[in-house]
Amino acid sequence: MKFNTKVIHAGVDPDPSTGAIMTPIFQTSTYVQNAPGDHKGYEYARTQNPTRDALQKNLAALENGNFGICFSSGLAATDGIIKMFSQGDEVIAMNDLYGGTYRAFTKVYARFGMQFHFADLTNPDNLEPLINANTKLIWIETPTNPMLSIIDIVAICAIAKKHGVLVCVDNTFASPYLQNPLDLGADIVVHSATKYLGGHSDVIHGCVIVKDKALADQLYFIQNATGAVPGPQDCFLILRGIKTLHLRVQRSCENAAVIAQFLRNHPKVEKVYWPGFTDHPNHEIAKKQMRMFGAMVSFTLKGDDFTEATRILSATHLFSLAESLGGVESLIGHPASMTHASIPKEERLKNGLVDSLIRLSVGVEDVDDLLADLQTAIG
Ligand SMILES: *Cc1c(COP(=O)(O)O)cnc(C)c1O
């Protein structure tokens, strides 16, 4: 099955008891047994739920994996992955990371005796010197948030494999429509399904996808043993959102390309970050590992004018000032004070995350209206 068919059909069969074409929301906490241990495969809804099962199968298919494991949020999915490891284990992560992931690594799991190293993995040569006998996991996002840096997934996985270290890719920014890390050698893919997979800014959800049965068994064990499971209604909303994933992401990417070019030509704009520019660092790698260049665009203002950035953030009408991304509607955000406020300023500046940096999540509206909104707001 090709991708555009999988989004609609993979894992989803008409309900056997009624023929309902849409997967029902199985809003139940338990399942009746005929006799002790004689049941239909469902015992208790933390452990199994048919709505969640359908979504897990669908997600596995979209990422060309064999197993999907759903969690109550993207960060709960991350939490599930980290719980496979133990005190003394070490993780090497890209230094430009989703703020909440960085916070969980440094403020939560570090307290339990794990070590986290951060490095600029846009150059894969920076990885190997950090690997030691305790290294268990490499954690990358690509494109990164909010600098949209591109990491060569194949190159990172080749180095990790040599040392027997697992690679996890947070594929939230690309979505499975644009990029499939498991095909490029990664062991684990994680998504905040809150973003492109859900796509309508109406649900918080996360998932992990793997090929390997032993990894899947560990993750299902943690899903059940520590319990951060999504409710069936949330699973239904993600399943529903995914049915148009290919259409939404394609249109968003087309719109983003036009907007990135417009910003690049704007006299008040200093720099535009968008992987589709031929002079964007690692553009050739983006071209190789992504289907299109994504719908996230970041830009800075001349003179790093924070006051002017603040004015622009409140002046747009179609671009709503809000955290998050990946919905049908366009959003504008200020990473330094919003999504990345939990990262110390000197760490932020090291990665080029200056105070005038504005991040756009480009939606599926008419691009002419989006351009007019930005033109009016930036002036
Ligand atoms: C939003 C986000 C997360 C966290 O997901 P939640 O669903 O908000 O918990 C993780 N990684 C990336 C890249 C994100 O954008």
Secondary-structure map:
Elements: H1 3-9, H2 50-62, E1 67-71, H3 74-82, E2 90-94, H4 99-108, E3 115-119, E4 135-141, H5 153-162, E5 166-170, H6 175-178, E6 188-192, E7 206-210, H7 213-226, H8 232-242, H9 245-264, E8 269-273, H10 283-289, E9 296-301, H11 306-315, E10 320-321, E11 331-333, H12 345-350, E12 358-361, H13 367-378
The chain binds pyridoxal-5'-phosphate.
In short:
This protein is of the alpha/beta class and 379 residues long. It contains 13 helices and twelve strands. The strands form two sheets. The protein has a seven-stranded mixed beta sheet with strand order 1-7-6-5-4-2-3, with helices on both faces.
Biggest sheet record: 7 strands, mixed
Count of helical stretches: 13
Mean pLDDT: 96
**Helix and strand pattern:** HHEHEHEEHEHEEHHHEHEHEEHEH
Helix content: 25-40%
CA radius of gyration: 21 Å
**Inertia-based shape:** globular
**Uncertain spans, ≥5 residues at pLDDT below 50?**
none
Bound small molecules, by name, code or SMILES, are:
pyridoxal-5'-phosphate
Written account of the structure:
- With 379 residues, this protein is α/β, with parallel strands linked by helices.
- It folds into 2 domains: 3-242, Type I PLP-dependent aspartate aminotransferase-like (Major domain) (Aspartate Aminotransferase, domain 2, 3-Layer(aba) Sandwich); 245-378, Aspartate Aminotransferase, domain 1 (Alpha-Beta Complex).
- It contains 13 helices and 12 strands.
- The chain has helices at 3-9, 50-62, 74-82, 99-108, 153-162, 175-178, 213-226, 232-242, 245-264, 283-289, 306-315, 345-350, 367-378; strands at 67-71, 90-94, 115-119, 135-141, 166-170, 188-192, 206-210, 269-273, 296-301, 320-321, 331-333, 358-361.
- A 7-stranded mixed beta sheet has the order 1-7-6-5-4-2-3, with helices on both faces. A 5-stranded mixed beta sheet has the order 8-9-12-11-10.
- The protein is globular.
- The chain starts with a helix and ends with a helix.
- 48% of the residues are buried.
- Pyridoxal-5'-phosphate binds next to helix 3 and helix 4.
